[in-house]
Design goal:
The protein is an all-alpha fold. The protein is built from 17 helices and two strands.
Amino acid sequence: YKAAGDGPVVVQGHEVTPAASSNGFSQALNPPPASSSAAAQIQAPQAPPSGCRDALFAVLFYVHLGLVGYAAAVNTPIMAQEVGQNIVSHEGGWGGQRQRRLEDNNNEGDGDADVNFEPLHLFITIAIATVLAFVVSSLALGFMISCAQPLIKMSLFFNIILFAVMAIFSFVAGATPAGVVFLLLLGLSAWYAMRVWSRIPFAASNLITAVTAVKANMGLAIYAYWSVLLLFFWSVVWALSAASTIFVDAGCSAEGECDESLSAFLLFCFFLSFYWTSQIIANVVHVTTAGTVGTWWFHPIEASSCCSPAVRDSYSRSLTSSFGSICFGSLLVAIVQTLKEMAHHATDGEGSVLACVAVCILGCIESLLEYFNKWAFVYVGIYGFSFMEAGKNVMTLFRTRGWTTIITDTMLDTVLFMLSLGVALLIGTLSAVIGAAMVGDSNTVAAAFILGLLLGYGICATLFSIVSSAVNTVIVCYAESPNEFQMNHPELSENMRTSWREAWPQDFNY
C-alpha cells in the first residue's frame, strides 16, 4: 500500500489506478493535520512482496487434510463392517428387524392415530421459508441503511429489557443468585448505554457505509453461504474420520466396549483438526470481504456489481497468496480452543476445580486471539500482508492514531444479533402459518415453526457476518485513508467525518 499522494494505490499487492481520475480529481487531497504529533507522523504500510505469504502453514494444513482423509478412507470401512456384522448377527438381521418393527407398529393400536405428520408438506413449507429467509435478509440490509440510528438505540434498550426480564423470571422461580447476577448485568447495560449514547451517530455511519459496500457486492453472500455448506461437509468427513479412527485405535466393538482407553493425543489431534479447519473456513470469508470492501474503498469501479472482479479476485487471493496467513492465524485460535475443550472434558474427573480455572483462562485467551485476528485479517484482506505483518500494522495504526477505544465498541454486534433474531421469528411464524394452511396438523405446524426459526436465523446471521467484517474494514480504511473515501464516496464520507469528529473530538481533527 502507498499513500495516495505518493503514487498509485496498492491493494492486495497489486497497483490500481486511483479512482480519483474517474470522478474529476487528478490527485488525492493532502492529508489534514492530525490532533497530535504522533498521529501526524504515521507512516502508511508498504506493499508486501509478491508471492504466497506464510506458505508453510498452508502446506501443513493441506498435509493435515490428507491425513484426515486417509484415516477416514482406511478406518471407516473397518468400523462399518464391524457394526454391520453386529446388526446382521442379532435379532434375525436386517429383514427380521424390519419385520418386527412393522409388527410392533401394528400392535400399538389406534393410540397414535391422531398423529399425522406430513413430511412432503413440511418439505414444501421449509422450501418456501428458505426463499423467504433469503428475501427478508436481503431487505434487512436496506432497512439497516435507512434506520441505522434507531436500530442501534433499540439494541441498547434490547439488552436492558432482556436482562430485566431474566432477573424477574429468576426471582419468581426462586433462583435468587441468578436474579442478582441478571440485576448486575442490567445495571452494567444501563451504564454502558449512557456511556456510548453520544457514539450512536458514529456507529450508525460505520454501519451505513459497510452495508452500502456489501449491497454493491452482493456476490459476497454466495461465498458466505457456500462456506456454511463447506463447513457441514467438513463436519461429516471429520466425524467419520474421528469416530472410525478412535474405534479402531481403541479396539472398540459395535456395542461400544473398547479394549483400550482413548488416546488423549489422538483426541487432541482431532479436536485441533476440527477447530483449525472451521476457523479457516470462516476466516476465508472474512478476508474475502475485507479485500472486496478495500477495493470498493479505493477503486469502486472494480467493486460495483454482484459478481464484481473485486469479489472474485479477493476470494481467489484468500485461497492462494493469503491462504497461508489465514492458516497461521486460524491455527493459533484452534490450539487454544482445543486446549479448552480438553480442559472442559477434564472437569468431569478429579482436579475439576483446576480444570474449570483452566477453561476460564483459556476462554479469555481465545477471546483475545479472536479479537486480534479479526483486525489482522482485515489487513491481510486489503493489502495481502503476512499474518504477523498484518497484526503489527493494525496495532501500530490504532496506537499511533490514539483511537484504541474505538475498536471496543460492540453496539453493532448487538444490532446484527437483534435483527437476525427478528428475521428468525418472522420466518418461523410464516412457516407455521404456511404449514397450518397446507395441513392444519399441530405436529407439522410446530415442526415448520422450529425449522423455519433455525433456517431464518442461520441464513440471516450468515449474511450479517459479512456486514460485521465490512464494518471492521471500514474502520481500518477510514483510519488510514480518509481522503480516498472523500473522493470516491463523498456523501458517505461527509456523514462519517461528522460523526467521528463528534464522538472523538480530541483524537480526530479532519
